[in-house]
Amino acid sequence: MKMGEPLLNKISFLIPGFILIVIFVVYPIVATIILSFNINPVPGIDVTGGKAPGLENYYKVLSSPKFINPYGLKTLSFPMGAIIHNIIWIAIHLPLTIILGLLIAVLLQNVKGGSIIRSFIFLGMVIPMIVGGLLIQFSFDKDLGVVNLFLKIIGLGWLAKSWTIYPDTALLSLILGSVWLWTGFSVTMYSAGLASIPKEIIEAAIVDGADFKTILFKIIVPLLKPVTLTVMAMTILWDLKIFDIVYVSTQGGPGGASMVLALLMYDYFARVQHYPMAATVAAILTVITLPVVIFWIKMVTKGESK
Amino acid sequence: MEGQSRFIIAVVIALIIGIVIGYGVGFATIGPSVTTKTVIQTTTVTKYVTQTSPATVVTTLTVPTTVVRAPMTLVVIGPWAGAEMEAFMEVLKAFEREHPNIKLEYRIYRAEDLASVAPPQFAAKMAPGDVIFTAWGWWVKKMGERGHLYDLSKLVNTGEFIKGIFDSVKSGDKIYGLPFTAWAKPGFWYRKSLFQKYGLEPPMTWDDFLKLLDKLKGELGGPPIVTGDGVGWPISDVTEHFLITFGGPELQLKLIKGEVKFADPQVREIFEKYIVPLLKKSYFSEPIEWTRALELWWQGKYALYFMGTWLTGMVKNPEDLGFFPLPGCKGVVMGTDYIIVPKYTKHPKEALLLAKWLATEGQRVHAGTKAGKFATWLKVGIEDHWKPMQEVFKKLKDKMPLPDLDDSVGGDWQKLFWDQLKLLWVDPGKLDQVLNTLTTNFPKK
Fold first, then answer.
1. Is B404 within a domain?
2. Distance from CA of B408 to the nearest CA of A (A)
3. Contacts of range B394-400, beta carbons closer than 8 Å, 24 or more positions apart
């Protein structure tokens, strides 16, 4: 048997996928980055409006109050700018997702009917995000919303209002809504992780007199570290590209108080029809997400090699 | 193994070099896009009519009135759903009866969705529909100037339409959209039965209006005016009504042209003296999605609703409807849905035939339905309109028709205007911020 034959076979299997990836993944990414510098990515089709190549779009986007609003930052009032809103989103959403996911998974581990409850929690993940956005809008509605109903029941009726229409609460309500939509993911991940922990370890700890707190923080949490890192990476990526629920429920308003990067990109693309500016926001978004992706890939490959 | 790795690396490098060379060759051989002039062809139709516009059109164009071909389907895109769509379907059916060989398929696209979806399709020389309706004149003009739409200037006699209706879709001597029926945003709607119940009358002065609001707030135990919401246009409509009432029709026109800024003392005074106090006294509700707001208002939770005339076709009993403009208001915002024909339609002759029919005889059909619209084609008489609209017309005939502010300015500023007004509605203390934002972001000429 010749040495080259198996290699050629392997390559012949790889080439179709490779070509598809180049056409549908690599090329659009490269084209977007090229376009962000005011260079037409498709020969013969002018989408830059004849502007000279350069960094003009980056200057415009980065200095725009839609991206970072110095006044909002100084006074700690909304809008603070899309990038800050995304960071706030991560800062609130990430810990809540991890804590809730872990707690619910642990609590449901040995509960009868736990899988049914997990299915209900997972519902948030399977409904389309557009519907999720509408549900968030209704949930925080003054008259129809379950959140305001709950507030009234516990005696906090004075807080009842349509949360998504006020600048100081619009972003917060969307973030809280997204916790509900995304927690199903972390619960599922942690449940799978918990199932992989050998029972003997827990049982040995119980025999040694360890309480629930000790078992949770000294055994379960450290053993679930790979799961936590995956949940973290996926949640940050999800938060950075968040679009649907904002578009449907607030359109980034009021007054830009819930504007996020992906919606800013969409606005430049669809409303202003300034494609190079949209490409610039996309390129910035890519640069921001890249470290997270690299970290996650490294972590996964490290885990596999172990 | 080392040999295998080298082979793989060589293949990958060869592929990359191939792509780069291919790209370069493509770049070198494909020339820049060429803008071509499209002429309306009229050679394959069986019957022609020659029309000459008495006003501005100097050349003569033959337009088809009947096209005899094998049965085919045209896709018509419009923004109407629900009751509004039902009214529009009557128009399409009337056309199909007159032209049995042309079937019409209706698809719903809101103006904001169309403005997002269509430009990339146009750039790829494709069209989402053969005949398209949109209320955004600025967008029609923009797409026309980019060469995506047929010039329809010679398709109708512009002198037969309401004066000024073509202004926003005109570029030089070209007209990229034909007007369909028009709506008006005449004032605050109320249920006559509710006013009778509380012994109320439409106000004649601003003080009367304040007293009315005060009394209604007491009777209803909450805000008397419901604020419609959606993407934001209902709030901009009521704001424009205040600006026209207290600044006169000319203020609306100057704001559209950018001759008066929102931070101008005259505009600021209207906000400070009339709009903000009403907001601070909670006479307006929180913004509520406009169709739900309509239900709540009709059920009696709210007493007043600022909305366009299409509302007449959306209520159960139009005879119970009354409206009043703010006392002293001399203008009324009117707008139309423009009919456009993309150059990329596969059936240009039939599409142009339909566009012409819709802008003329189609309006007669539509005005007679429960659409709540007025005809912009002057050959449609007031007697051709649905009865409740005849009543509305009588009340509005002395008002000066004005273009919609945000629909005229358009672009990113339109969304900003809606968004900033929403902010003002929930936080009237941010008036300075709102007016400054609207001023600094107003499109420069």
1. no
2. 15
3. B395/B186, B395/B323, B396/B184, B396/B186, B396/B332, B399/B186, B399/B325, B399/B329, B399/B330, B399/B331, B399/B332, B400/B249, B400/B330, B400/B331, B400/B332
B280: containing domain: 187-307+410-440
Residue B272 within any structural domain of the chain:
yes
Predicted confidence at residue B163, as pLDDT, reads 86
What are the C-alpha distances in Å from B253 to residues A183, A206, B405?
52, 80, 8
* A74: Cβ contacts below 8 Å, ≥ 6 apart: none
Q: Are residues B221 and B367 in the same domain?
A: no
DSSP-derived secondary structure for B267-327:
HHHHIIIIIHHHHHTT-EEEEEEHHHHHHHHHHTS-SEEEE-GGGGGTSS-GGGEEEEPPT
Nearest-angstrom CA–CA distance, A61 and A66: 8
CA dist., res. A83 & res. B318, Å (int): 49
Q: Which residues of B159-183 are buried (b: 16+ CB within 10 A; e: fewer)?
A: ebbbeebbebbbeeebbbbbbbbbb
Res. B49: pLDDT tops 80? no
pLDDT at B41: 34
Same-domain pairing of B170 and B215: no
A44 touches chain B (CB under 8 A): yes
What does the block give as tokens for A178? 């997204």
Whether the pLDDT of residue B60 is over 50: the answer is no
Q: Give the ipTM of the model, two decimals please.
A: 0.78
Residue B4 lies in a domain: no
Q: Of B51 and B367, which is predicted with more confidence?
A: B367
Number of domains in chain B: 2
Q: Among candidates A12, A258, A255, A222, which has minimal Cα distance to A133? A: A258
Residue B315 lies in a domain: no
Q: Where are the domains of chain A?
A: 82-278
B70 and B168 co-located in one domain = yes
B97 and B225 housed in the same domain: no
CATH code for the structural domain at A82-278: 1.10.3720.10
Tokens of A175: 């973030």
The answer, yes or no, to whether residue B6 has pLDDT greater than 80, is no
Residues of chain B contacting A, Cβ within 8 Å: 3-4, 7-8, 11, 15, 19, 23, 26-27, 30-33, 112, 115-116, 119, 123, 229, 231-232, 286-287, 411-412, 415, 418-420, 422-423, 426-427, 430, 433-434, 437
Instruction: Print the SS3 string covering A26-85.
Output: HHHHHHHHHHHCCCCCCCCCCCCCCCCCCCHHHHHHHHCCCCCCHHHHHHCCCCCCHHHH
Instruction: Report pLDDT for B177.
Output: 97
Same-domain status, B297 and B340: no
Picking from A135, A148, A271 by the largest number of B CB atoms within 10 A of its own CB, the best residue to mutate is: A271
Residues of chain A with pLDDT under 50: 1
Q: What is the pLDDT of residues A242-262, one digit of tens each?
A: 999 999 999 898 989 999 999
State the CATH number of the domain containing residue B228: 3.40.190.10
